[in-house]
């Protein structure tokens, strides 16, 4: 990544504890605009906690204590007064698709409508664009009125991505999106993400080391709440890692 690349997210000294137990331990890292940054690491490494700090979902966990800063475009997210406005800038895709019990069309149109976009023609255009961007449009174009929950798991996950895109976010965070998705759909979504990075900045938490290798520009390894190493994929997936644990984790020797 060149020194001229713009920092979209700047994380500094970020620590989180739940009821006194440390989950993230002084994480500092930057995410550049239009890159795909992967975060890998075993269970309980703090990956999901990290994503939850970006859009302040962490606020909804009563025992969570957060220290340090997360800045987006230079602004501290914890100083933001309108959390909903912040969250509209950050699309989130969770491990299991969460289909809203409404039509395919409405799943995508819901958030824009809530934000006051009600013009039918423009909504139609937006829904189609988001469904195309998530590689779902051709499969659902003739049944937009069907319940989203009737789609297959892989289709529902793509619907979740379409929904995340419906607010035209600047940042897209994905948390192990392929856990419930077959390999073919996973590859399709990976293609989608490669295209999307032209428009958004992507933070991809994945338990699939090979997925990080295929997709990301840079990869970070988290272990026990600590950032062990963050570097270009060229380094992380080589023998030249700065930390021996990175090499071992990537080789599948633990985790
Ligand atoms: N709501 C919570 N309350 C208490 N402890 C929590 C909570 N959420 C996470 N933790 C703890 O924080 C640590 C980090 O969890 P986190 O979910 O961020 O890890 P992860 O890397 O996403 O793991 P996984 O790969 O299993 O999803 C774990 O020890 C976990 O038990
Ligand atoms: Mg997790």
Helices, strands, pairings?
Layout lengths: L6 E12 L2 E12 L3 E5 L6 H8 L9 E9 L2 E2 L6 H6 L1 E4 L10 H11 L5 H14 L3 H4 L12 H13 L5 E5 L7 H14 L4 E5 L3 H7 L2 E6 L2 E7 H4 L7 H7 L5
Parallel strand pairs: 3-8, 3-9, 6-7, 7-8
Antiparallel strand pairs: 1-2, 1-4, 4-5, 9-10
Helix pairs in contact: 3-4, 3-6, 4-6
The site of adenosine-5'-triphosphate (ATP) has 12 residues, from helix 1.
What does the model show?
There is one protein chain. This protein has 255 residues and is of the alpha/beta class. The protein has a domain at 1-87 and 202-255: Rossmann fold, CATH 3.40.50.300. 35% of the residues lie in helices and 26% in strands. The protein is built from 10 helices and 10 strands. It has helices at residues 47-54, 83-88, 104-114, 120-133, 137-140, 153-165, 183-196, 209-215, 233-236, 244-250; strands at 7-18, 21-32, 36-40, 64-72, 75-76, 90-93, 171-175, 201-205, 218-223, 226-232. A 6-stranded mixed β-sheet has the order 6-7-8-3-9-10, with helices on both faces. Strands 2-1-4-5 form a 4-stranded antiparallel β-sheet, with helices on one face. A hairpin with a 2-residue loop joins strand 1 (7-18) and strand 2 (21-32). Helix 3 (104-114) crosses helix 4. The protein is globular. The chain starts with 6 loop residues before the first strand and ends in a 5-residue tail after the last helix. The mean pLDDT is 94. Adenosine-5'-triphosphate is lined by residues 18, 23, 41, 43-49, 61, 207. Residues 47-48, 175 line the site of magnesium ion (MG).
